[in-house]
Design goal:
Blueprint lengths: L10 H18 L3 H7 L5 H8 L18 H13 L7 H14 L2 H13 L4 E4 L15 E5 L2 E12 L6 E7 L9 E6 L7 E3 L13 E12 L11 H37 L1 E2 L2 E2 L4 H29 L5 H25 L10 H9 L9 H9 L3
Parallel strand pairs: 1-4
Antiparallel strand pairs: 2-3, 3-7, 4-5, 6-7, 8-9
Helix pairs in contact: 1-4, 4-7, 5-6, 5-7, 7-8, 7-9, 7-10, 8-9, 9-10, 9-11
């Protein structure tokens, strides 16, 4: 357990951590390298995770969830990072679940959330397009109404869970001539439509076991009842309201990697010897590790503050942007320094520090690039 106990942690959270940790060590860690080679994990492992409550733990029990707070979700992210497992895209599952929980109709919640909690349904968010990154108002994918159906056309790229997903939240234009007011969120079930296709998982420099795909929509007909909520043109506002959660998840993952990488490096420098002494005895090593321990503690206290604010329904976009930007950049710099202290072994993929290094880079890009985070923060100056 951590020497520092997060203020939001309860005895129930501790018990849940023990369960998740044992599960990750027995079910995920032995398959970690195979998933990296395959570029995705098999769907049955989602169902195994669902059986022990790792999916939708902070969704109400009436919809199949665990009925807890965000702390239960946070524990899963921490334990996955501690075990150096990046193949499980459960963060996306959590985000989609809360889109449905907050904006979905009662029928939509009962239809999709229970199977998301069990892992039978795996979700993706089809947001980024080949020519559109952080500028969501400029998406080109369209969904034009034709009677009781929407006809979807367009393409998406860099979609996490895109290969396994059997429920996709598509960000699209129901009014192609409008910007923000023309965006809607439409839930698409790939197995129930024609004209949908996806490619094999993309090759990436990090997070190689997490499936990331391109998606294509060619006259896909989706029932009008799959519009998230009951009114067109609300998608941009729905996204903006829920982005603090997504950015907190990125910041939390960054802090968990910082803690894991730091602990690994301290142990390595105690064991590795040079010039007849342990590497940790050199002043440069001790001072570097002292700096990184301080940064890690600051990051943990800040992210715990954000978790408490989210649990209270008070996490604002500015603070979430700070968490995402600062924690991800601090994480990357820390992992870089820790890799250096591993010497040549740090460059070998059989050492977890190499995985942390390659996995860390994307944290500064997805969920809104850090440049966008700074733009959002600057608006409060």
């Amino acid at each position: 357990m951590y020497a520092y106990k997060s203020p939001w942690m309860t005895e129930e959270h501790e018990m849940f951590r023990d369960t998740v940790r044992k599960f990750v060590e027995t079910e995920f860690v032995p398959n970690r390298e195979r998933w990296i080679e395959r570029k995705h994990m098999e769907p049955e492992y989602w169902q195994k995770a669902g059986e022990i409550g790792m999916l939708c733990p902070d969704i109400a029990t009436e919809y199949g969830g665990g009925g807890g707070d965000f702390g239960f979700d946070a524990i899963t992210y921490e334990e996955l990072q501690r075990a150096c497992v990046s193949s499980f895209g459960n963060g996306i599952q959590s985000i989609v679940a809360h889109y449905l929980d907050v904006y979905g109709t009662e029928e939509q919640k009962l239809r999709w959330l229970p199977k998301m909690a069990t892992g039978e349904t795996i979700t993706a968010i089809a947001m980024t397009e080949p020519g559109t990154g952080s500028d969501l108002q400029a998406v080109k994918t369209s969904a034009l109404r034709d009677g009781d159906e929407y006809v979807l056309n367009g393409s998406k790229t860099f979609i996490t869970n895109g290969y396994n997903a059997n429920l996709i939240c598509v960000i699209c234009k129901t009014d192609p001539d409008a910007r923000a007011k023309g965006i809607s969120l439409i839930m698409l079930e790939p197995d129930q439509v024609e004209g949908f296709s996806r490619n094999s998982p993309l090759s990436k420099i990090g997070m190689k076991g997490q499936d990331t795909c391109e998606l294509f929509f060619d006259d896909c007909r989706v029932p009008v009842g799959n519009l998230l909520g009951t009114e067109e043109g609300q998608g941009f506002y729905q996204l903006m309201a829920q982005l603090p959660r997504e950015r907190l998840i990125v910041g939390l993952g960054s802090v968990a990697i910082m803690e894991a990488a730091l602990n690994l490096t301290i142990e390595y420098t105690k064991e590795r010897r040079a010039f007849n002494q342990a590497i940790i005895e050199f002043q440069n090593t001790k001072f570097k590790l002292a700096e990184k321990k301080t940064e890690t503690k600051i990051a943990r206290v800040f992210i715990d503050h954000c978790i408490e604010r989210l649990n209270a329904g008070e996490l604002d976009a500015e603070t979430a942007s700070m968490a995402k930007y600062w924690c991800s950049e601090t994480q990357f710099n820390l992992v870089n320094e820790c890799l250096q202290l591993h010497g040549g072994y740090g460059y070998m993929m059989e050492y977890p520090i190499a995985h942390y290094f390659t996995d860390s880079r994307v944290q500064m890009i997805y969920a809104g690039s850090n440049e966008i985070m700074k733009e959002l923060i600057s608006r409060s100056l």
